[in-house]
C-alpha cells in the first residue's frame, strides 16, 4: 500500500535484523531442549569460562581449527574490547578502514589507541595509502571487515586480501578480520578469509547477531592458540564466564538443522531488499557511485560535492527519514589528499529491516533532499 | 553411607551452588514464556542497553530506587570491571577488606589500582586500621561485602556499617557494597544495607548467581542516577547490550512466584549444611575462632600459628581434600602489625555444594592434617 509507506517514518539508522527474521519459536524449542537435556546443570553452573565447549567445538569444526583456538563471549564487541585491552598500550597505533564500524573505532580509542583511518576504495583498502601510513607508523593491528563492510558495503578483492596479509607479515602487525555478515551472501562466491591466507597473523571475529539473533549476544574470536589462551584468561578475569544457556541454544539450533534452514530464510527475505536498494539508488541518484554488495546489511553512498548535504540529518528527519551521522564512521575528521567534508556526505543505508517499498520511498526522499 | 563419603574427594574449593539447587525445569518454562510472549521479539533484537527494562524496573522496586539507578549486566564481576575502569586512574588507591574476594582484588589491580587490604575482624572491618590507612592515602573507593562475606563469612555489625558510611562521607570516597549472599539468610535478621544509610556514597552490586543460577550471568548495580548514567554509557560502549533472553527469564521467574519458592528451597537445603560445618569446626577444631555466619556460602578459619600448615594444599590433596590457596584472598602479603603468614593459615570452607556428611568428613580430614 504505497499510500501508507509514503507517510510513514523510514529508519535508515541501524543495521538490525528484520523483526520477522528473528526465530522465536525455534529458539524457544532449543532453549528448552538445552535446559532439559544432559548438559542442563552444566549450563546453569559456573564453568566453561572460554565459552560453552560444545559451541567452541562446533565453531572450530566450521573454521577447521582446534577448539582451543576459539573464544566465545557475550557478543563480538566485547571480544574486540578484550583483545584491544590485551594488545594495546596507550599511544599505540591501530589502523581501520575509512569509513569503518563506529563502535570498533571508539573501543580502540578507549583502550588508548591512536586510530588511523585508511581510505577504502570500492574493492577494499587503498593500498598506496596503507603503505604510506605504515611508513609513518607501524600499527599494532589493523581492523578490517572484508565482506560486505559496515558501513560501506565493500567486499575486499582477492588481490587486496593477499596484499593485506603480505603487509601484515612483512611489517609484523596483527590483522583483525570482523566477518559477521560474510555468511549472508545473496549472490556470487565467497573469497578466502584472511585467516585462510595467513592464520598466524589473523584474528577472526564474528557472531550470531545477524545469523540468529542480536539479543543472544553470542560472538566468537579465532586466533593462534597462544594468543587465544591469553585472551581467554583475560576474558575470565573480566567476566568470569559468558552467559551459557544462550550458547547452548545456539548449539541446539545447529543440531536440529535450524541454522541452515534459517539462513536460507534470511537470504530469501534480504536478497530482494538488496535488489530494491540497488535499483532505487540507480533510479533516484543516477551517477552516484557506490559499492554494489552481493550480501550483508549495508549499501552506502558518498554524495557528490555539488549535492546539498547542509544540515542533512535534521532536514531528513523533518521528511520522516532517519539517518546516521556519516562522520561517526570516520576515524579521522579528514586525511591529507581527502575531502574534509567526506564524512558529512557519507550516507549509510542499512536495508535488511525495511521492505522494498520502504526502501524505495526512503531513497526517493533522500534524493529529493540532496538534489534540491 | 559413611563408607562412601570417607573415600571420596571433597572439594572445599569454590563457592558454587549445589547442582540439585539449580532450577532447570522452572527456568525452561520461564525462558519459553519469555520467547513466546509479547516481548519475544524485543529480547532477541538490539536494544535495552542498560539491561532488560522490566528487570531494571523489578530490581528498582525491590531497592526502592528509580529504574535509571539500575544497570543490569552479564554478571556482577563485569560490572565491577566497568565501574573500576570508569572510576580509576593508574596509581589510584582502592581499599578492600583483608581477606576479600580474590577476583575483585585482581580486577581493581588490572584497572591500575593500588589495592590496600584493611584487616577484617569477626564483626566487620577494623576501624582503627581503616582510619590509619585513610590518614596515609585516601581511596577512590572501598570495596566491602557486608553480609556473609566472601571468604570470611563475616557480617559487618550495625555500628561498623554506620562508621563506614560516616568515614566515606567525611573523606569523600565511594563505598562499593557487594551483596550477592545477603538474601540467603538462614537465621536472624538483616542489618541495613550501606545504601540505606547513605545512598549518595554507595554503589550496590549484586547478582542472581547464588539465588537462581550462575550460568545465567545476570548481575546488577545500583547507584546515584548520574553515576549509573555514565556507567551505562560505558557498558554500552563495551558490550553494546547484555544478553537479554536470560534477563527476561529472570523477570518471568519472579512473575510466576518461583523466585520466592526457590529461595525457600535454597534456604531449606543450605541451612543444615551451615549447621553441619559450624558443628564440625567446633568438634574437630575446638578453640579455633571463626565468624559463625547466619547465611551465605562461606565459613573460614585462620589456623593458629602452632598448627601445621606447611605445604597444606598439597598434603590436603593427597588426603582427597581440595582447598583454595588462602593467600589469594589477601591483597597485601602482610600488613604492619599483622602476621606475615596469615594468608597461608587462612582456610575458606564453602559449604553449600556439599552434603552434611561430606562437610563433616572434610573438616575431620583438615583437622587431622593441621594438628599432626
TrEMBL record, chains A, B:
InterPro entries: Aminotransferase_I/II_large, Class-I_PLP-dep_aminotransf, PyrdxlP-dep_Trfase, PyrdxlP-dep_Trfase_major, PyrdxlP-dep_Trfase_small
Classification via Pfam families: Aminotran_1_2 (PF00155)
Cofactor dependency: pyridoxal 5'-phosphate
UniProt KW keywords: Aminotransferase, Pyridoxal phosphate, Transferase
Entry's Gene Ontology BP terms: alpha-amino acid metabolic process
GO molecular function: pyridoxal phosphate binding; transaminase activity
Classification via CDD domains: AAT_like
The Aminotransferase class I/classII large domain, residue ranges: 23-366
Name of the molecule in the record: Aminotransferase
Lineage, uppermost ranks: Bacteria, Bacillati, Chloroflexota, Ktedonobacteria, Ktedonobacterales
